[in-house]
Amino acid sequence: MFLRKKDNSQNPTKETKILNNNLKPIIKSIEESSDEQREIVRKFRLEMENFVTERSLESCVKALNLSMQLANIREQLLETYKQYISILESELKTSLKNNGDSNK
User: Fold this and answer.
1) CB of 23 closer than 8 Å to CB of 81
2) DSSP 8-class letter at 4
3) CA 13, CA 61: separation in Å to the nearest integer?
4) Handedness of CA 29, 34, 39, 45 (dihedral sign)
């Protein structure tokens, strides 16, 4: 999904291979964390409905626990996206520099 498309008119450059190899684990991590986040959100909704109905300490603790898990997974996602952005920013700077050098 996020990987750079290979241009069929020429062989992929070394930089493209490196970029794709660097992005693969980050993309996998984002996809896994996103799946986990969706599952936690689903469970959290159920526990909140349970808490609203029961108003028990146990249901409150379960909902609180899931909200903390959700906060943790979102923090992980944020850090992973920061890594992803850093790689893309570096690639963009390199591309702009190369385009600037070729225009001279």
Assistant:
1) no
2) P
3) 53
4) positive
CA distance 23 to 48: 36
Domain boundaries, the chain: 20-102
**33-90 per-position pLDDT tens digit:** 999 999 999 999 999 999 999 999 999 999 999 999 999 999 999 999 999 999 889 8
Q: Give the global pTM.
A: 0.70
How many of the other CB atoms lie within 10 Å of CB of 25?
Answer: 11
**Distance in angstroms (rounded) separating the CA atoms of residues 92 and 17:** 15
Phi-psi region of 4 (alpha: psi -120 to 50; beta: other; left: phi over 0): beta
Task: List C-alpha distances in Å: 90 to 21, 24, 72.
Answer: 15, 16, 27
Q: What is the largest CA-CA distance in the chain?
A: 72
Residue 6 DSSP symbol: P
| Dihedral sign, Cα of residue 26, residue 29, residue 84, residue 72 | negative
